[in-house]
Amino acid sequence: MNNLLTKNESEKLTQAPPRRAITPRYRVRESEDTFTITAEVPGVERSSLETTVDGETLTITGRRTWTVPAEWTPVYREIPQTDYQLVFELDHRVNRVAIRAELSQGVLTLTVPKAEAVKARKIEIKG
Amino acid sequence: MKLIRYQKLPLYNPITSFTGLRDEMDRLFDVAFPALSSLQRDRFLGDWQDEFPIDLYQEKDAFVVRAELPGFRKEDLTVEITDGILTVTGHQRTESKPDKKGKESNGAIEEQQVSRSISLPDHVAVDKIKANYENGVLTVTLPKSEEVKPKQIAIEVK
Question: Which of A54, A110, B89, B135 suits a disulfide with B78, CB 3.0-4.6 Å?
Fold first, then answer.
């Protein structure tokens, strides 16, 4: 997968260089005044999750922080050793500065409010 | 066609293999192409609902099982051990809620259950098992029972 981090964003990641990143399972729901993005990022903790809006792009990067302790012997491994990255293009329909992110038990919920102009507004008819 | 597994997977438990051929192919796929993460591949095959990835580690005095189960509440996860077989189950029940404006929900209830069992190579002290759920990862620590810990045996030479 392409590494979509821009130069500014990769400077922020002062830990080990990013490992190969995959797109997590995610889903986008639309309600009357928000878009809600839910992504499954198990193994990511608050400190290793980054959500950045750079112009029109919303980038979410989550790194798995857990490493195998030295005394442990792996017997069987299925959990992928990859980090997560999710990128969205934002357009005029959303209010970029009011995006909220919550992380709970490996599930990231991003609430992206719709821009005012796009919300339906009833116009009173006088007459 | 005979499928020969050339990598020894001691925990390939027959109980979970009744999903059969597809699982066997998945495992061969993992061996042949370890670069493809199982997350990527399974989304492709569209069948991730039944299984979640697990790791098994061995320490001097215990086994540790890690399972990736994002989005559950602690009370919806069950860890059981019977006869040397550990079963991890996650249960999730979601009801579609009415909209903010009070529109009725369609009443749909989604129930999802995922479960996996693994057999453990050695005996475990069942009463000392501990489980911890953090960041969507369930970690189960299973201390080995006394009699199977490696013990030095003095060799007498006459």
Answer: B89
Instruction: Measure CB to CB from residue B136 to each of A42, A68, A74 and give the nearest one.
Output: A42
pLDDT for position B140: 93
CB atoms within 10 A of CB A59: 17
Which of A27, A29, A48, A78 has the highest number of chain B CBs within 10 A, making it the mutation to test binding with B?
A78
Q: What is the largest CA-CA distance in chain A?
A: 81
- The 10s digit of each residue's pLDDT in A44-64 is 999 999 988 888 899 999 999
B58/A75 touch (CB, cutoff 8 Å), yes or no: yes
Find out whether B125 and B144 touch, Cβ atoms under 8 Å.
yes
Output the six-digit token pair for A93. Answer: 């329909």
State the pTM of this model: 0.66
Query: What letter represents residue A83's amino acid?
Result: D
Cα(B104)–Cα(B78) distance, rounded to whole angstroms? 33
**Of B38, B40, B137, Cβ closest to residue A106:** B137
Are A99 and A110 in contact by the 8 Å Cβ rule? The answer is yes
